[in-house]
Design brief:
Elements: H1 2-29, H2 34-44, H3 50-63, H4 78-102, E1 106-107, E2 110-111, H5 113-124, H6 130-157, H7 163-193, H8 202-229, H9 234-261, H10 264-267, H11 273-277, H12 282-290, H13 293-302, H14 310-322, H15 325-344, H16 351-366
Helix pairs in contact: 1-2, 1-3, 1-4, 3-4, 3-8, 3-16, 4-6, 4-8, 5-6, 7-8, 8-9, 9-15, 9-16, 12-15, 15-16
Length: 369
């Protein structure tokens, strides 16, 4: 994946350049705004850049340029690199807001944004509640990153010579933003309305959250944004969607398993964190279908208790595994990856891109963090 690694380097450089420009603007207003830029830098400096990679390979799959865009000084890459960077900034905004919603203390092994602001408040000895300051400041940081993602996208699309392609890419981005916000609301709704819904609907409702909160935004939308920038036909966009949606579902199901069983030294989150947060995932929905009434009641009582101890977490982990829910989720992941990769066999997309997308499918569905 030589192009992939080079793309990641370009995205990193583009984000750093953009942040430097915005830091200058904020510094001209007041040095008191320095935490906004320093904390932004923290949340944008790491990550696997999967969304950027899917955006690039969606673009590459459609382009059929007949030359290596990395050998032309990057002129042709500016729109897609900017869009890929915009996706990474949008993702950072979503993570900042998500951590506030979930009351998460950590992100990638370090304090979450609102906790960083809370610590800033405590260290400075400011008046009022540190928690309130941290939460309010975190919301504003997320809003700032959201606006910056739009600016980055517009800078890239403004360099396109084809206005129709620019409009199509912008439409895909807007659709993604609406869908992920809707999915986030459905997620918090399910955490609170779970036990009032018919048992027969719980798996379907959990899958709906996966589709709109994660699957479309993590894989499908980056692919179609990249494809649209390259001037994809309706048939090509359909192929990218047909590949992206099932792979996005597999991606999130793997994330759900890591949220319960992941190694904290690798994931950067405490073991069993999703159990403490009360995530009503497909894993939990399947377990509730399989458990005896007494075990189901115990699961319902403990799920979402932020004070769960390590022994209780291990007991819930065993319960979810021994009832066969984990094995079923693994089967669903494998089935969705197979559906996605089958699309690549005769999709009207470039040969090299199809190969790289197949490799990415394995990487996102088998990851450990």
């Amino acid at each position: 994946m030589a192009h992939g690694s080079r793309l990641v380097d370009l995205v990193h450089a583009r984000i750093e350049e953009f942040l430097a420009e915005r830091t200058s603007i904020l510094r001209s207003i007041s040095p008191d705004l320095d935490p906004l830029t320093s904390f932004s830098g923290r949340f944008l400096s790491g990550g696997k850049r999967f969304r950027a990679l899917f955006c690039y390979w969606g673009w590459e799959a459609v382009g059929a340029r007949g030359f290596d865009p990395f050998e032309t000084g990057g002129r042709d890459l500016f729109p897609v690199v900017s869009a890929a960077s915009a996706l990474e900034v949008f993702h950072a905004a979503a993570l900042v807001h998500d951590d506030i919603i979930d009351n998460s203390d950590t992100r990638r092994g370090a304090p979450s944004a609102h906790r960083l602001f809370e610590t800033l408040h405590a260290d400075a000895g400011w008046a009022g509640s540190g928690a309130d300051f941290g939460r309010a400041s975190g919301i504003l940081l997320g809003d700032l990153l959201l606006g910056w993602s739009d600016e980055l996208l517009d800078e890239g699309l403004g360099a396109l010579s084809d206005p129709q392609a620019a409009r199509a890419a912008r439409a895909e981005f807007i659709r993604m933003r609406t869908e992920v916000t809707a999915g986030q609301y459905l997620d918090i709704l399910e955490e609170r309305a779970w036990l009032t819904q018919p048992e027969s609907e719980q798996r379907t409702r959990a899958e709906r959250v996966i589709v709109y909160k994660a699957a479309k935004y993590s894989v499908e939308a980056p692919l179609t944004i990249g494809g649209a920038i390259a001037g994809a036909s309706a048939t090509q966009l359909a192929a990218l969607r047909d590949f992206g949606l099932p792979l996005g579902i597999a991606y999130q199901l793997r994330d759900d398993l890591l949220g319960v069983y992941g190694d904290p030294d690798v994931t950067g989150k405490p073991s069993g964190d999703d159990l403490r947060e009360g995530k009503r995932t497909m894993l939990v929905a399947i377990a509730r279908e399989r458990l005896a009434p007494g075990q189901r009641r115990l699961l319902d009582e403990l799920l979402g208790d932020p004070g769960l101890g390590s022994d209780q977490v291990r007991m819930l982990q065993r319960t979810l595994s021994e009832c066969g829910a984990v094995d079923e989720v693994e089967r669903i992941i494998a089935d969705n990856v197979a559906r996605a990769t089958a699309v690549l066999a005769d999709a009207p997309l470039g040969r090299e891109a199809r190969s790289e997308l197949g490799s990415l499918a394995k990487a996102v569905s088998r990851r450990t963090s």
